[in-house]
Amino acid sequence: MTVRCFAFLSVALACCISPASDWNYLLRRHINNTNTRVQLSRGDSDETQYYSELADLRDESAEIAQEVVDLIRTTEVGDPIRFMALDLILTNKFSGEPSFTAAQHLVGSKLDDDQLAQICRGMAFGYPGPSPASEAALRSIIDNTDSDELESIAKLCLARILRTRMEDAAAVQRLSKRRYHVVKEIGSEHAARMLKLDLTAARNEALQLLNKIQGKLGDRKLGERPLNDIAAQELHAAKRKTIGCLAPTIAGNDTSGTNFELTDYDGRVRVLLFWGHWCVPCRKAYPLYRSLVSEYPESAFAFLGINSDKQLATINDVIEEKEVTWRCWWDEGRRIHAEWNLTGAPHIYVLDKNRRIAFVDVRGEELREAVALLTEEERETKE
Fold first, then answer.
1. pTM of the full predicted structure?
2. Which CATH class is domain 251-382?
3. How far is CA 211 from CA 152, 157, 228, 268, in A?
C-alpha cells in the first residue's frame, strides 16, 4: 500500500496545476495514517487504549476521504488527480461514508477503461480492502460501460467483494467482538450494513456473476495470474468454501503417518487451521490454539491443522516440545492447500457439527467466541 501511495505522490508532484498541492498534502496525510495503522498492534497496549487509537485513525481516515471528495469536485474531468483521488478513496476500506460520494462521481469523471479496471482490481484485490461504497461503484461501472471486458472485470471484482463481505457479515452478525471491532475500525454505519446483509442473497449473486464471466476476461492479468484463472478460483470458493457450504472433505496422513479424514470428526464443532511453523502469526497464536484444545472435550470439539512446512521434522519437533497440541495433516507438496485453493497462512475455517462452514478467518478472541457459540448451540440442542 505504501509503495502504491508513493507512486501516486510522484505523479502528483509532476502536476503543475493548483489542486496538486492540496492533493500532495492529503496524500501525505493518508500515507501517515496508513503507516500508523499498520504499526498499531493490539499487543502494544491494553484493549481500551488500542480501540481508542483505532477509532481516532478511523475518524482521521474519514476526514481525509471527505477532503479528497471535496478536491474531486474542484478538478476538471480528465484531470489525472481526479483518477488518483477516486482510486485512493474507493480502494480504501477505511474511507467511510465519503466513499459513497466518490462512487457517485465515478461514471461522470469519464475515466478510460484501463483506469476503471485498475480501480476495480484495487477494490477487490488490493490493500487495505474495499471501501464501504465499493459495491455501489462496481454496479455503476457494470451498468454504464460499453466494454464487455471491463464489465466482466467489474463483475469478477463485485463477486469477490460480495463473498468476502458475506464472510465478514457472518462474524459481525453473530460475534460481539467482531461487531465491536468493525464499529471502531470502520464505523457504526458500516457495521449496521453488515448486520442487515442477507448472506444467502450475497452468495447467490456472487455465483450468478461468476457463472456469467467464466472465460470472458481476455488476456488480462493481476500480477502474473490471468484473471480467467482467478475467476475460476473465485467460483470454486463461492461454491465450496464459504459461509454455509459443506466443507470439502480432507483425507491424508497425520504427523505420525496415520491416515485420517475430516469426516472422522462429524458431529463435533471443528476448527481447521491451515498453517506452518514458518508463519510468524501462526506461532504467535499457539497459546490460543492450545487453550482451545484443552478447554473443550474431544467429544464436542476438534482442532485440526493442515501443516505446510516442507520438512516433517519441523512439525514433529514443535509437537514434541508441546508447542503444538492439536492433530495435523502434514500437507506434503501442499496437495490439500491446492484442493482448497489456498496460499500463505494462516487460514481458519470454523465448522459446525454438520461440517458446514460457519466462520472464515476469525482470529484471536473472535475465534474463541466463535467456538464457544457453536459448542453452546450444540449443547443446547442435546438438552
1. 0.90
2. alpha beta
3. 11, 13, 12, 34
